Amino acid sequence: MIWQALSLQLGYNASLVAIGATILGIAAGVTGSFLFLRKRALVSDAVSHATLPGIGLAFIAMVALGGEGRFLPGLMLGAALSSGLGLLVIGWMLRRTRLTEDAAIGAVLSVFFGAGIVILTVIQSMQSGRQAGLESVLLGSTAGMLRSDALVIGTGGALVLLAVLLLRRPMLAVGFDSDFAAVTGTNVARIDLAMMGLVMAVTVLGITTVGLVLIVALLIIPAVTARLWTDNALRMVALAGLAGGLSAYIGAAVSATAPALPTGPIIVLASFVLFALSLALAPARGGVALLLRQIRFRRRVHRRQGLLALALGQPIHEPFTMALLAREGMARPDGVATEAGRAAAAKALLDEARWAALRGDPAHGLTASRYDGLTPIETVLTPDQIAELDRHLPRAQGVA
Amino acid sequence: MVNPLSSPRAVSRTDGVVATTPTPPPALEVGGLTVAYGEKPVVFSVDMAVAQGTMTAIVGPNGAGKSTLLKAVLGLVKPLSGEVRLFGLPLSRARDRVAYVPQRASVDWDFPACVIDVVLMGLHRELGLLRRLRPEHLARARACLARVGMEDFASRQIGQLSGGQQQRVFLARALAQSADLYLLDEPFAGVDAATEKAIIAVLKDLRAEGRTIVAVHHDLSTIRAYFEHMFLINMRAIAAGPVAEVFTSSNLQRAYGGRLGEAQVAGMQAADAAS
Amino acid sequence: MGAEFVALSLSPLLIGVLAAVTCALPGNFLLLRRQALIGDAISHVVLPGIVVAFLLTGRVAALPMMLGAAGAALVSVILIEAVRRTARIEAGAAMGVIFTTLFAAGVLLLEQSDTSGVHLDVEHALYGNLESLIWLDATGWSSLLDPMALAGLPPELPRMAGALVIVALAIAAMWRPLAIATFDEGFAATLGLPVRAIGLALVMLAALAAVAAFDAVGSIIVIAMFICPPAAARMMTDRLLPQVMWSVGFAILSAVLGYVLAGYGPLWLGFANSVSAAGMIATVSGLILGATMLFGPCRRRAGIAA
Asked: Do A278 and A292 lie in a common domain?
């Protein structure tokens, strides 16, 4: 069943929904990574919760005008208007009051959502029974999704992607260094506005699929996942799109197999699985790699300190240093250096003296900044340069 | 003078850089201290000793590990290796003898408190969790404020103070701790001339009372006037000892490398002229 | 009027007030520590905590659920910190990863497990069911002196009152260290204060407030009470103790006004049915915050830019 779902064999409608969701997931991952680069990931939480009163009011307005209350583009318009208002309120709070961003986000999120709940209960009382389904905007459901809805979502997602493609350069510039971008002529306020507009678009498109409580996950988790794999911003954006699309596709397909499985939570969990795997295994920023590097780094520091102590005939008190030197055959357990230890120690001391000479010489300013107490000088200077440096050394240091 | 570069060691339990008599123990002793952020060492294998009743400046270029050294001494960052002793004791047993004046910019001055509230924080060890605030506590806090010339500002909201006034409040809070060792992180950064004068006067008073002062300092032109000892650092200890001996252009060159700005050059010239 | 009020409105009103105050108290410190969104995260992860507790014990009982929710809050705080450090990303993004995932897991568990017949569903988790907490045994104000009738009070009432007492006492006991660590964590650490434990204790108090209030008013309203009354209070004063007092006042006002407007407002406007009290309480707290942001004496950042 699940395999059939994943290979789009559950019928035309289910396949359409899965494709629409995938496009949405790509758009969310891509847009979210710009938001993440701008360090405003949780603004999306306020944006999504602030859609609720707009959805409710749009429903009421459409019913009052004699139309179908669940008309998706209408609901989307209402959602966009009220979340736009929420963003304006956040901006006003940050400019005009002493409140910080977290408080402004939280206040707008909860108050708008509370007002939305009030409006939902109004709808409940005026449309006895018939509104059933509007609450699906909270957690998303593809169960009752119409073909036209899937088309709206897919087209909207494609438009968002197109807009990102056009705006990628200024958005990256602002995300990397907004001050510099401003100095070089980018209109930072306008780019931020455009970015928020895209976030709003993704949120509004995602309401029916993922639900407004969880769409924020699709904006944040793929971006963070991608960040673990690369330091290159554009590559990160692409990877985030991939992670977002994959999660949404898996989520939509799996939930199509069983109506009781809500789409939103499954999409979120799928994206979290990708994140957790990346967090553990990513080569540069993953947890395992990080741990290994830290252990290696700690050893290098202790080895260097121990060798310098050996070179100068000083006692080593730190047990870890002693154990390390003993294990590597540099010293006997009682702290006396071995042959190899003495050689390595002399080398370390000479290295240190050369570095000290180099750092005192203004001619080497840039090279000197690479000093970290660990890097052998041979890796930054040519043999000729080292020979030149040695001529300035206080006579015969260390090279006994 | 002992050049610390010629004697890097894993742990120092013997006499330190500053020549001291065997007793009493140094107010501050650091051996083989290495601190790294991620995989970038900021302080590497540093030994340091500060005798009781002295006034020492920690000097070095930006990013040389001055503040980090102070934070490691106070246990605020965890060192990769090394040992810290205060008055011959580990930090946990010497906390009540140490007062810390952090960088002014390290806190949010929009916090809802007024000046006297902040100074009273220095009395926390006596007040504890639940003891009532007594008139004598308030009187002592006020006396500390008076010492830094801020007695008229006791009920002022801290966000309304100028940079110099904020720095004085921080110093008053440290005074309220009545410690034996004062560690100050850039106490003169971004303060007005009057505040600088007031602060140095208080520090010299403390020194005259036999207390120990260690301050991160970046203005080379005032070191001679303010401090008697200095500790030159750029990730490694470069030189340490009486200012008259350490404050030489060759030592400064070794600490600052090619990164000497104009102000530092002026300071060096002053140093050379004086020697 | 009296009898009807006591039976139908007194106990939800009281529960609403207690819940609002219980959340507002720790909210003050979360706000000052710029951790307002930790409140957001906690109120979301309460759901999986409760669902897991329900699945383990098989019944809807107060104590296991409290423990489950507190455990979930602890787990989420640890996970957020672990993700932040390992991936070296900002706290907001780490929070966004963890609380959405845990909430999604909670929803999924809830949908998959058989909770028909017990009072546990997602809508309830989001916006509670304050109106249903009525006092059937009450016949009038005199019932307040009648032990028999008092025994019929909804159990949420004493539970919420107990949570308030614990939260208030804990904050009073930790007042000084909490204030110092909130203002200047580095200095607090040099005093030997256990700054990490203090931060964790605050989160645990917030979790206690969230889980106790959650049952009655739902999670989104919990966030509103964590943030809006303290933020409004911040606009009124520049001292810590008065700020906390103001926030308590605003919390009570939000709860009373919100409950009354939800219950009677629609009737005044000619509608037949009342609207969600929890939603209305959050809305009113937002309106109060709006008013203080426009007119509060201390609404701007103080004084001179450093």
From this structure: no
Q: Find chain B residues with C-beta within 8 A of A364's C-beta.
A: 257-258
Q: Say if A396 falls within a structural domain.
A: no
Last residue of a domain, one of A227, A252, A282: A282
The pLDDT, as a whole number, for residue B1 is 36
What is the number of domains present in chain A? 2
Q: Which residue has tokens 């957690």?
A: A139
Taking only the tens place, the pLDDT of each residue in C250-303 is 999 999 999 999 988 877 877 777 888 889 999 999 999 999 999 999 888 765
Place of tokens 């201390």: C298
Minimum CA–CA partner of B65 in chain A: A372
Helical ranges in C218-306 per DSSP H = 219-234, 240-268, 277-295
Bridge-based pairing of strands B28-37 and B40-50 is antiparallel
My answer on whether A321 and A185 are in the same domain is no
Please give the structure tokens belonging to residue A286.
């993953």
- The partner residues of B114 in beta bridges, in order of sequence, read B157
CATH numbers and ranges of domains, chain B:
4-274 (3.40.50.300)
How many other C-beta atoms lie within 10 A of the C-beta of residue C132?
12
C-alpha to C-alpha distance for A54 and C46, rounded to whole angstroms = 27
Interchain contact, B76 vs C180, CB within 8 Å: no
C103 touches chain A (CB under 8 A): yes
| C171-215: pLDDT as tens digits | 999 999 999 999 999 999 999 999 999 999 999 999 899 888 887
CA B9 vs CA A296, A344, B17, B20: distances in Å: 21, 15, 12, 19
- pLDDT over 70 (residue C75): yes
Residues paired with residue B28 on neighbouring β-strands, in sequence order: B50, B86
Q: Do C177 and B75 touch (CB under 8 A)?
A: no
Cα angle, residue C198 at apex, residues C195 and C200 outer, rounded to 5°: 110
8 Å CB contact of A372 and B40 = yes
Q: Do B74 and C237 make contact, defined as CB atoms within 8 angstroms?
A: no
Residue B262 host element (H or E): helix B262-274
Question: Which residue range(s) make up the domain with A309?
Answer: 288-391
The fold for domain C2-295 equals ABC transporter involved in vitamin B12 uptake, BtuC (1.10.3470)
Counting as contact any 3 or more CB pairs under 8 A, the partners of A are B, C
Q: What residue has token string 């967090």?
A: A279
Q: Are A223 and A36 in contact (CB under 8 A)?
A: yes
Overall size of chain B counted in residues: 275
Predicted structure pTM score = 0.88
8 Å CB contact of A96 and C300: yes
Contacts of B102 in chain C (CB under 8 A): 184, 186-187
Output Rg (C-alpha) for chain A, integer angstroms.
Answer: 30
Residue A76 lies in a domain: yes
Asked if residue A383 belongs to a domain, the reply is yes
Q: Is A317's Cβ below 8 Å from some Cβ in B?
A: yes
